[in-house]
Amino acid sequence: MTESSNRKQKMAEERQAAFALLAEHWPAVFDLKQTKPLALDTRERLKAECETKGLDVDKIARAVFLWVRRPAYQAAMAAGGQRYALDGTPSGEMTAEQQSHAAAVSTAIKARIKAAEDARRAERAKEYAARQAEARPARKPAEGNGKPAQPNAKRGKPASKPRPAKPASAPKASQALPDTAMANALAAVLGRKSS
């Protein structure tokens, strides 16, 4: 696993543990299957109940922080209706301003989630392309011309076989090779006959 996936796994486990803790002590309002908007005085009531039950206030505050930032919670807030106390009893109505704020937060959360998913998808595509490139053997140049062999563009027709390279023809006696003068000069210095 990569460091990023380990961190995501740890965060998911932290959320699950936090939600389980909330559901254990206040199941009427912390239910993943039926999300309810919390009453406005929930923070003060939670603090008082944590002291009564001997719970870690910071741990509960972190759990509630994670709870209210869920897209499902923001969607429940945007839908409007009743707010609920910790015991599940109605505790006031949502205002239009609270609903519109929740709708904006919900939209921002969804956009952030989509951007993260798009980034993950692009990263996976990049990794896949790299693996495919490593798995494919490099094309060897066709003999003779130094260019890579190209597959036949027409479908259904097998690719043509590479042509064998033409043997180098010997130069005609009348044709002087570019380095013949140099070879003759070198032979003269060494005292040998040049051909």
TrEMBL record:
It comes from the Bacteria. Residues 122-142 have a biased composition (Basic and acidic residues). Residues 13-126 form the ProQ/FinO domain. Pfam families: ProQ. Gene3D superfamilies: ProQ/FinO domain. SUPFAM superfamilies: FinO-like. Keywords: RNA-binding. The keyword RNA-binding applies. InterPro entries: ProQ/FinO, ProQ/FinO_sf. Residues 154-164 have a biased composition (Basic residues). This is ProQ/FinO domain-containing protein. It comes from Jeongeupia chitinilytica.
